[in-house]
Amino acid sequence: MRARYGRRVLRRVAGAAATLALTIAALLVVTFALSSLSPIDPAIRLVGDHASAASYQQARRDLGLDRPWPVQFARYVSQVLRGNLGTSSSTGQPVRDDLAKVFPATLELATLAMLISAAVGLAFGLLGAWRPGGLTDGVIRILSLAGNSIPIFWLGLLALYLFYAHLHWTGGPGRLDDAFEYTIDRSTGLVLIDTWRSGVPGAFVNAITHLILPVLVLAANAIGNIARLTRAALLNESAREYVILARAKGAGEARVLFAHILPNASGAAVTVLALSYARLLEGAVLTETVFAWPGLGRYLTTALFAADVPAILGGTLVIGVCFVVLNRCADLLARAVDPRIL
Amino acid sequence: MNRPRRPFTSADLCLGTAVLGVALFAALMAPWLAPFDPIAQDIGQRLSPPTLTHLLGTDGLGRDILSRLIYGTRPTLALVALVMVLSVPIGLTVGIVAGYCGGRIERLLMGVTDVVMAFPTLVLALAFVGVMGPGLINSAFALALTGWPAYARLARTETLQMRRSDYLAAAEMHGIVGPRLLWGHVLPACVPSMQIRLALDLAAIILAAAGLSFLGLGMGPPTPEWGAMIADGSKVIFDQWWVAASPGAAILLLSVAFNLIADGLRAAGDPSRA
């Protein structure tokens, strides 16, 4: 019995790994297709507008652009697998190094936003499902509807105006005040850890005042989403017969909710959380632009304006792979938490 | 899946449809409703706070914000309609064919669907528009590219549920087969759940489209677009906050409207879960 269970788990993990590989391969097809369909000719980018026809052809040969596209694709995949994402035409650095530099900032932002939206969203969902149709439920429903529908870049701007420019409660754009910006050693790239380890007085607190707005703004969409779906999952379960049985046997409301309904709804909750994390990484693109946050999203938007194709596609690939991996983790986690899902 | 008998009994649905109706009306009647020309500049009046002549103030080039807001419903609704027209038919076709044919075709189609479903919408749209060039059509293609799998899954589930039904067997016995069966008998069954999904998606698409145009990947100046208007306002946010405030509120309102319609449709289709 146990051996069979082990084999089933193994097969499931292998299946998930295969789907994951397939999805990432498909993502590579999309980025490759975008780079070959792009109206920007990388050979002209390399040699300039006024190059002779001979040097232009030479550049095309060097870049492999004269080969048939399956060969180009194979070349592209092998380059990506070796970690070579090309050279950014705007920074002049390898895209991989650029991305490694900016990724921690995004990771920090999205992870903190995730923690906050998980705590607040789950709490809202529970409160709403406690007395469906009641006053609390109504207020929470309006809040989560607004959180779900608000353009976060707009919310960010208004928050900057109100809390930074008008009330002076929080720090402004960027990760630190200028006074700290150039004195802190950026070894991990995570501003909270770096400022804590630097021991510079006030730096850690300063980092928190700068983090608070972008984190909360980024979390707004996710909070709305998590609250709505948690509430729906809980209410869906509470209509089942085992809940009626538990009540008939005299279990109190709290016991029914926490001991009976919650474990059965946890599969749905876990899926929602993992998917929200993926969406937060994506939402960071807009938030970072508003808050001048030097992360992956801002790198991507800067590259967009410079028509820097390798940087755009490299950034897309990194966010895409994170997104896809989290998506697949959501599937696996939901199955681990809730064995009923096949 | 019983259809709502009186569709406008739910307050959600009424409110959402009303807001959407106002937006549609504004888009159709923009030249008559807008008090000013949305692209006429009046530098003398630039960055004016809300007054009786300019009800929502003016932007950095002295253009009337209310007029731009009214004209801005056009690109927004056009984009939403385009994405809808592009993604729904693809998704439904893939899902119905997969659910009806079964076997290897189903596995192949749903495999592709699952793969595309896991793609990040906004970032891929960003890359697509960034590489292929900004504009309404490209934005719509970019958003439809990752938008269709949801409908495919949904249509497949509905089709599977009725594949072995007497209803379909009766239709087949009358000689209705092939595309006509799928179009006339299977498709209608997918409509109720598709409507809900569509309304939810459109709420998200409005936000994504606004994000694209905020980043400067929309139709470009001087076309009045809500996202681009917020981007203009962000330059003066600390002194003239009203320039960015109203277009954002418009986006929020329209997105809420679609969410309300989705909630209303869901409650109407399934009275047990109001």
Structure report:
- The complex is a heterodimer of chains A (342) and B (274).
- Chain A is mainly α.
- Chain A has 2 domains: 2-81, no CATH class; 95-174 and 212-337, Orthogonal Bundle (MetI-like fold).
- Chain A has 14 helices and no strands.
- Chain B has 274 residues and is mainly alpha-helical.
- Chain B has a single domain, classed as Orthogonal Bundle (MetI-like fold).
- Chain B contains 11 helices and no strands.
- Chain B has helices at 11-28, 30-33, 65-101, 103-117, 121-132, 136-145, 149-163, 166-173, 179-214, 226-234, 242-269.
- In chain B, helix 1 crosses helix 3.
- Chain B starts with 10 loop residues before the first helix and ends in a 5-residue tail after the last helix.
- Residues 1-5 of chain B have low confidence and may be disordered.
- Classes of the chains: A mainly alpha (342), B mainly alpha (274).
- Chains A and B meet through helix 1, helix 6, helix 7, helix 10 and helix 12 of A and helix 4, helix 5, helix 9, helix 10 and helix 11 of B.
